[in-house]
Design goal:
Layout lengths: L1 H5 L2 H11 L6 H16 L8 H15 L2
């Protein structure tokens, strides 16, 4: 998550596309990004792998869309 916090907007967009976050839906992708941004700023979360947090964020967004 430390790398996410320091990444550019373009790098974040590229990574979200590669991870398939929320099937490419812009609104959902923005919510996943917001979740990742919030997590990267949370104390004690800097060492978490981006892929694991992205998966958890995507699952959270999917639950909220039901």
């Amino acid at each position: 998550m430390q790398a996410w916090a320091g990444a550019s907007t373009a790098d974040k967009d590229n990574l979200l596309r590669k991870l398939g976050a929320s099937s490419g839906v812009d609104a959902a992708r923005n919510r996943v990004r917001s979740c990742l941004d919030d997590t990267s700023r949370t104390t004690g979360h800097s060492s978490l792998p981006i892929s694991e947090v992205a998966k958890a964020c995507s699952e959270q967004v999917e639950r909220e869309n039901i």
